[in-house]
Automatic annotation (TrEMBL):
One of its GO terms (molecular function) is metal ion binding. Keywords: 4Fe-4S, Iron, Iron-sulfur, Lyase, Metal-binding, S-adenosyl-L-methionine, tRNA processing. Residues 307-319 have a biased composition (Acidic residues). It comes from Hortaea werneckii EXF-2000. Pathway: tRNA modification; wybutosine-tRNA(Phe) biosynthesis. This is tRNA 4-demethylwyosine synthase (AdoMet-dependent). GO terms for biological process: wybutosine biosynthetic process.
Length: 769
């Protein structure tokens, strides 16, 4: 029986399958679906933990994703793994040299004990009005401030060494320095433009640490402008003061102590009131600093270089506090995700995107007719030619027209002053010499950034301006008719009026025009433009002003604008050494008592040994009493006597002899306090008319044969300075004779005849012995 039931079991199972197979299959499918859905939910939960939503901005950091086995084994107790910290890579860019000294933290700087506050007032002026404002501010601070405020210091930016104050700050124990800048705005290039350029270069110089002026207690700027000429800031009102405030904020690390002030000089009462209010505010801030209160916290954005509305057009400020990044638009493209893109994003590395769509402004005229520089120069007697050239007749031209003597060029080289035109194709200079008699009104710059006038109108304008001024002399009492008639034919041109003539881009073309009309050329440069000096073409005589024999003294006397001024100077010396075979070269030494006379002969001898000039002019400085010279500490005490110049020349001659250089005194002009050293090997010779005479003696030949120079030039062949040496130097110009032409009449300051004293000649001869 049991066996029969067992045998019937398959039939019963088959019967049950046929009877309930639909329910079994449906249940199995449902169970499989539930299992599959559960696995899908677990996978989705893991992705939500590990992958952020598409629209959520997160920092890109590598995550350690667990294996699939760990996920399935511990799905109910899953926790996202902690990301491993990554080492932050340095940003690309030039390496910043900061040294090994650790900078003090902000807290330690604030904790520094400050007992005194030293206000330093910087100003710039062309006409003197800003100086008056600065002096009034200094007086108000000195009278109304507490004892903790030291007496203000005044500095003219034209006479200030920028590196001493705007690359580093003065050091004083327990004393904080506060800078006050009073700046006008000009629509021409002045020393103020170079000051702003210095601030900008300092900020962008990767060799200089960020915010080098952060040690200041604070700063504030007051701008002076004319709303009658520039109604708004957008049209130019106080723009240079705004720029100075911006760069000072970056260099000081956002230490603007008081808001930028403005004064309208067209309304004097209003500008005076604004300046007084600004002075009161600055005084209160410095009082708080002396009491240890500091500048305060300020609202967000306080101390920023520029307003937030201007940020779009400015580069990101490196010294500013980090700001929150701007939110990106929610309308993102699918191609933003590399998983959907499945390929690298194409990037063009060959073309850089321009940072600004605006075109750079066109160059401006160097001296516009509406500028104060134009008015100042014309008031001094200059005739402005075009936009950057000038011409003027000197006092020696007027003297020669009346038969009262010519300048030293006649004694040395045979140039009569009434036949000479003094001009320049560039009113701009690269130096700010302390003894310059141009009153500091000419533009300055290190590169040519103005409009360039063609050489043809420059040459014609120079001649027209010169002849016009000569014609104005025809009614002056004492002018000789024959000399006035001779003066209407220009024979010589001294390109030494003002500025840097070699700076003019078409200087060679201008020299060619002079030579084609048989006008000799005397070109003066300051040894600061070696590239232009190297490319200089033929010139009758090439002057180089040598005002110092070492780097430090050159900085003090010439105050060059180039940072590599000494390297440029030495390179020019080397170029002159090569050009001595093709050009007649002259060193011009200007002696300033107390600066470059004492123990300087050896240094000058080294420079002469390098350049080997044909001549060395040694001249005592002429005191002109300008604000520039006064600001540098010059007075009549710095003007050497002729005996002192003579002693220096003899010492220089001896120093050259020790180096095997044979130079001697070839001529003198005592009235100009000037003595000429010449190379004996080239200019001390037997006269051409006495070559056949074996008993003939050698004589000095410092004069120039000008017709011979033009013949050599027109021949197209190479020639040397020795090929156009003139006749012997006249006896009255030789050493010991004073250098005054006996055919002329010597007069005193009041025009009365004056005879040279015998004692003066004897003193000179005694010094020679």
């Amino acid at each position: 029986m049991d066996i029969d039931k067992i045998l019937q079991l398959p039939e019963e199972l088959l019967f049950l399958w046929h009877a309930h197979r639909a329910e079994v299959l449906l249940s199995a499918g449902l169970l499989f679906a539930l299992l599959r859905l559960a696995v899908h939910w677990r996978t989705r939960k893991s992705k939500e933990v590990l992958t952020p939503p598409v629209l959520t901005p997160v920092d890109e950091k590598p995550l350690a994703v667990p294996s699939a086995k760990e996920t399935l084994a511990d799905a109910d107790h899953y926790e996202a793994p902690t990301p491993k910290p990554t080492v932050q890579r340095p940003k690309p860019g030039p390496k910043r040299v900061t040294g090994t000294k650790k900078s003090k933290s902000a807290a330690s700087q604030e904790a520094q004990v400050i007992e005194k506050v030293q206000p330093i007032i910087f100003y710039y002026t062309l006409g003197g009005s800003t100086k008056v404002y600065a002096e009034s501010v200094a007086q108000d601070l000195a009278t109304s401030s507490p004892s903790s405020l030291l007496e203000p210091q005044l500095h003219d930016l034209a006479d200030t060494e920028y590196d001493d104050f705007f690359l580093s700050i003065p050091k004083a124990e327990k004393t904080a320095h506060f800078y006050l800048l009073l700046l006008p705005t000009y629509n021409i290039d002045t020393n103020l433009s170079n000051f702003l350029e210095h601030l900008q270069e300092t900020h962008h110089d990767f060799r200089i640490d960020t915010a080098p002026l952060s040690g200041l207690a604070g700063y504030s700027v007051f701008g002076l402008g004319d709303k009658h000429e520039w109604p708004s800031e957008a049209e130019g009102f106080c723009t240079q003061a705004v720029d100075a405030d911006k760069w000072m904020a970056r260099l000081t690390g956002r230490k603007r102590g008081f808001p930028l002030g403005f004064g309208d000089v067209s309304k004097k009462d209003e500008s005076d009131n604004m300046l007084r209010e600004w002075t009161k505010g600055v005084s209160s801030i410095m009082k708080d600093l002396a009491e240890g209160k500091g500048l305060g916290e300020g609202v967000p954005g306080s101390g920023e270089p520029i307003e937030s509305a201007d940020e779009a057009s400015e580069d990101e400020d490196e010294t500013a506090a980090p700001r929150k990044p701007k939110r990106k638009s929610a309308n993102r493209s699918k191609t933003d995700d590399l998983e959907d893109l499945k390929a690298p994003i194409p990037v063009d590395f060959t073309t850089s995107k321009p940072t600004s769509t605006t075109q750079p402004p066109p160059p401006k005229p160097m001296v516009p007719e509406t500028s104060p520089t134009y008015s100042a120069l014309t008031k001094q007697g200059y005739t402005i030619v075009g936009s950057h050239s000038g011409v003027k007749i000197c006092r020696w031209t007027k003297s020669a027209l009346r038969g009262r003597g010519s300048c030293y060029k006649f004694s040395f080289y045979g140039i009569q002053s009434h036949l000479c035109m003094e001009a320049t194709p560039s009113l701009s200079c690269s130096n700010k010499c302390v003894f310059c008699w141009r009153h500091g009104t000419n533009p300055v710059g290190t590169t040519w950034r103005w409009t360039v006038d063609p050489p043809e109108p420059v040459f014609q304008g120079m001649k027209e301006g010169h002849y016009k001024k000569i014609k104005m002399m025809r009614g002056v009492p004492g002018v000789r008719a024959e000399r006035f008639q001779e003066a209407m034919r220009i024979r010589h041109c001294a390109l030494s009026l003002v500025g840097e003539p070699i700076f003019y881009p078409y200087i060679n073309e201008l020299l060619g025009m002079l030579h084609r009309e048989r006008i000799s050329s005397f070109l003066v440069c300051n040894a600061q433009h070696p590239d232009q000096l190297e490319a200089l073409g033929p010139v009758t005589q090439l002057y180089v002003s040598i005002d110092a024999s070492n780097k430090e003294m050159l900085r003090q006397i010439d105050r060059p604008l180039h940072r590599d001024y000494w390297e440029r100077f030495l390179r020019c010396m080397e170029i002159l050494g090569r050009k001595r075979f093709t050009h007649r070269t002259v060193f011009r030494l200007t002696l300033v008592k107390g600066f470059n006379i004492e123990e300087e002969a050896e240094g000058y001898a080294n420079l002469v040994e390098t350049a080997r000039p044909g001549f060395v002019e040694v001249k005592g400085v002429t005191y002109c009493g300008t604000s520039t010279s006064k600001g540098a500490g010059l007075s009549m005490q710095n003007v050497p006597f002729y005996q002192e110049v003579t002693a220096f020349v003899l010492a220089l001659e001896k120093a050259l002899a020790k180096r095997g250089l044979d130079y001697g005194i070839g001529a003198e002009h005592a009235h100009s306090c000037c003595i000429l050293l010449a190379d004996r090997g080239r200019f001390f010779r037997v006269p051409a008319a006495e070559k056949d005479n074996p008993a003939a003696k050698r004589k000095w030949h410092t004069l120039i044969d000008y017709p011979r120079f033009f013949d050599c030039l027109e021949s197209g062949k190479d020639f040397a300075p020795e090929d156009y040496v003139g006749p012997p130097t006249p006896e009255w110009a030789l050493w010991g004779h004073g250098g005054f032409d006996p055919r002329d009449e010597r007069v005193d300051r009041k025009g009365r005849p004056k005879e040279p004293k015998v004692q003066e000649v004897q003193e000179v001869q005694e010094v020679q012995k």
